[in-house]
Design goal:
Blueprint (H helix, E strand, L loop, with lengths): L32 E6 L5 H17 L1 E8 L2 E8 L1 H10 L19 H14 L7 H6 L5 E3 L6 H6 L12 H8 L1 H33 L5 H7 L5 E2 L10 E2 L4 H10 L3 H30 L7 H12 L12 H37 L4 H5 L1 H35 L4 H29 L6 E2 L2 E2 L1 E2 L3 E2 L8 H39 L9 H10 L8 H17 L8 H23 L14 H23 L2 H11 L16 H5 E5 L17 E5 L11 H31 L5 H27 L1
Antiparallel strand pairs: 1-3, 1-4, 2-3, 5-6, 7-8, 9-10, 11-12
Helix pairs in contact: 3-11, 6-7, 7-9, 7-10, 7-19, 8-9, 10-20, 10-23, 12-14, 12-15, 14-15, 14-16, 15-18, 15-20, 16-19, 18-19, 18-20, 20-23
Length: about 750
């Protein structure tokens, strides 16, 4: 279905609603777009090119009104109704209705006008120059559609008090277009679906509290006053007692317990069910908008012909040379981003040295924790910087690829930018989860950077604590600091711009110019404004699913963050930003494939976190193979009794070659460290290889079971509701029956 006749009717003046805060005056004329020129940068050549562009618009069928204020020239433009009649005629599909005309339905009017006018403005070519070329040369400063008075969205959606209320998706669609409406529909659905995930994660976390003091492993660690551990750093050359990690051992058990496996499996199924239910929701929404079978290419070609009747079809092209170059540069960029993880490794090594020599007692006592937390902060700063770099590189690669249409360019850009962002955000987490503390060697023979700097060890209570803290810091900062900046930055910019362009008590005789100025004072938007919102949510979805086994509170944090994000985005779009150009869509596009890819990565990553980062497999193997309960022995002790001693290897202090630790008050002949090695030659013990095989078996089983569960869930929940299928089937049937009736009439004649 392409649209409705109502979509192309000319709206009377009484239906035009200027934004309540922006234009309290009722304008006497309606305008589709406003073009702005900075007269301070004007010269005869630029003025001539501006007039040539405006004259060409008038020939196309636009009415233009010019008004000047403060060295700014504003040009209001309004398209003639025949442009929209052409649009209606080109997209008429006799198979869509029995009468051969477009079916009547609740399709918005203003959004279609803005979309068509924006397409013409962006693609109109005068003397070999388009609007973007003129903008780069300061012929024009900007262009924007005008806000209308949408009191319902302002009073019932774009307010913090409505944070727990259902979103008016159809109203959003009528004002901002289908693309924005589908974003908020998806974000709202995602937030609702986070409720069961957040409850499950919270239960897993709280279940650890029931064993906070009763865990056998925590008890053994807290009572290990005589267990001397080898130094974790060169520059803090002191032995330490295992009992010093008593508190962290109890905290680790909050998220590294038996429920972690079931929660990771639950989240794998949750991701699939979430996507399948969203597909159903999207199908119902698109069907209700008569857009279920909408063809984007057909609409874009129609607007090309409206803009230029002599338009020559630009066909799809593919170049193996261009693809090879893009692939090569993408791989180089990915290697650079992975290298940023090594920068963090170097930082943590240097931070360990600096903090160990600090005059602050806290830094020396909580050295590992301080290094992990500050490392996460540095990681967050790298993310902020590299996001800007990633965007520019992805845009350059897209321009080199020369996509056929804007939609194709946006899709290609999205894939490249997301891949770069994924490695920016998750490279450090991958290193922490699977490499930290595992490539360090052993006491007396440590792996060193440049032969001097010793690689960092895991947290004394285990590598899961490192991953948990890094996830908590990065995700916490992204959901709090980023949201604050996202709101405060446009709010402050708007207030400053408003005072500059619209001082207190100022009024203008022309209500149209008054309205234009108030819209001009809002924050500027671009074609990627909505894209940025989607990207932010995709990264959050990755944090919520990929390493959720190490941070079960991630869904809960994401849920509360999304409640704020929805209203924050609504307030920005309605009150603080210029109006987004509406775009038609019937789904969220390539983002759906991104969500499916993240779901698959989540299965792999969580399986490996449980197997290699968590203590789940070593505990399980000890409980049923090495511990007192092996072979069904009937004992009264806890099955994990003696696990801590079993999991620690012995190092003879006489084998230290350099960097000999300080002795303290007693003579230390042996110290312990986390690993499975022989105490004679420090080679890997049989327990290590048995555990490695068990870990690999668990990863294979977990991933196969989780993937099978995902396939069953995808089959059990149909993508498209039967009601939508039946509606489409009935329309086809009625159409064929009408054709048969008309054919019979012709035959009879």
């Amino acid at each position: 279905m392409q649209g409705t006749e109502d979509e192309f009717q000319i709206v009377p003046e009484t239906d035009s609603f200027p934004l309540m805060e922006l234009g309290r005056c009722q304008p006497t004329e309606t305008w589709d777009f406003v073009l702005v020129s900075d007269l301070q940068k004007a010269n005869p050549n630029r003025a001539y090119r501006r007039q040539r562009f405006l004259a060409e618009l008038e020939k196309t069928g636009f009415t233009i009104k010019e008004a000047e204020d403060k060295r700014k020239l504003f040009c209001g433009i309004r398209a003639h109704s025949r442009l929209f009649s052409q649009y209606m005629e080109l997209l008429k599909d006799t198979s869509c209705s029995l009468s051969g005309t477009l079916p009547v339905g609740p399709v918005p009017t203003t959004t279609t006008r803005i979309r068509i006018v924006n397409f013409i403005l962006r693609n109109k070519e005068v003397d070999g120059e388009k609007f973007d070329d003129l903008k780069k040369d300061h012929v024009f400063e900007t262009k924007f559609p005008l806000h209308e008075r949408e009191e319902f969205l302002q009073n019932n959606w774009a307010r913090w008090r409505d944070i727990f209320y259902r979103q008016p998706i159809n109203k959003i669609r009528n004002y901002f277009g289908e693309k924005v409406a589908l974003y908020f529909a998806w974000l709202g659905w995602y937030t609702v679906m986070l409720v069961p995930a957040a409850v499950a994660g919270l239960l897993v976390f709280l279940s650890g509290f029931s064993l906070f003091h009763a865990s056998q492993i925590s008890k053994e660690i807290c009572e290990a006053n005589e267990t001397i551990m080898c130094p974790l750093q060169d520059h803090q050359r002191k032995y330490w007692r295992l009992s010093e990690t008593c508190t962290f051992a109890k905290l680790t058990h909050l998220f590294d317990n038996e429920g972690t496996v079931f929660f990771a499996f639950f989240m794998a199924l949750w991701a699939t069910v979430f996507l399948e239910l969203w597909k159903r929701e999207r199908a119902q929404t698109a069907s209700g908008w008569n857009l279920y079978g909408w063809d984007e290419d057909q609409e874009e070609l129609a607007m090309e012909l409206i803009n230029n009747p002599a338009y020559q079809l630009r066909k799809h092209q593919h170049s193996y040379l261009h693809s090879s170059v893009i692939l090569l540069f993408s791989l180089v960029m990915i290697c650079l981003l992975i290298g940023m993880a090594h920068v963090l490794v170097l930082y943590r090594v240097m931070a360990t040295f600096l903090f160990s020599h600090s005059a602050l007692p806290f830094l020396e006592q909580q050295l590992t924790t301080a290094v992990v937390v500050t490392g996460a902060l540095v990681h967050y700063m790298i993310i902020v910087v590299m996001t800007k770099v990633n965007r520019k590189v992805a845009l350059k690669l897209c321009d080199f690829e020369k996509p056929r249409t804007f939609s194709e360019r946006e899709s290609n850009f999205m894939v490249k930018f997301f891949i770069f962002q994924f490695f920016t955000h998750f490279s450090s987490l991958i290193y922490t989860a699977f490499f930290l503390g595992r490539i360090n060697g052993h006491p007396g023979n440590q792996v060193r950077i440049g032969g001097q700097w010793r690689l960092e060890e895991c947290h004394p209570s285990g590598c899961m604590m490192d991953l948990f803290m890094q996830m908590a810091v990065i995700m916490g900062l992204k959901q709090t600091l980023s949201n604050c900046v996202e709101y405060l930055s446009p709010w402050l910019t708007y207030r400053i711009q408003k005072l500059r362009e619209w001082p207190q008590g100022r009024s203008l005789p022309d209500p149209s110019l008054e309205e234009w100025l108030k819209n001009y004072s809002l924050n500027e938007v671009n074609v990627f404004s909505l894209f940025d919102e989607f990207m932010e949510m995709m990264i959050q979805y990755g944090f919520t699913t990929i390493f959720v086994a190490a941070f079960p509170l991630a869904p809960l944090l994401a849920f509360f963050s999304n409640l704020i994000e929805i209203r924050l985005d609504a307030i920005k779009m309605v009150r603080l930003q210029r109006r987004l150009v509406p775009r038609k869509a019937n789904d969220i596009g390539t983002w759906l494939q991104v969500l499916e890819a993240i779901g698959l990565l989540a299965v792999i990553a969580n399986g490996m976190v449980i197997a290699f980062t968590s203590e789940f497999i070593p505990r399980l193997m000890y409980k049923y193979h090495y511990g007192p309960c092996n072979r069904g022995s009937n004992v009264t002790d806890d099955c994990l009794t003696g696990y801590v001693n079993h999991s620690l290897s012995i190092f003879h202090t006489k084998d230290y070659k350099d960097q000999v630790p300080s002795q303290g008050t007693e003579s230390v002949t042996e110290c312990r460290y986390r690993d499975y090695r022989n105490k004679v030659d420090y080679s890997y013990s049989s327990e290590f290889w048995f555990l490695l095989a068990s870990r690999l078996v668990f990863v294979i089983l977990f991933e196969h079971v989780a993937l099978c569960g995902k396939l069953i869930a995808a089959w059990f929940v149909p993508d498209v509701p039967q009601s939508v299928k039946n509606k489409a089937l009935e329309e086809k049937f009625e159409n064929l029956r009408e054709k048969l009736r008309l054919s019979s009439r012709v035959t009879d004649v």
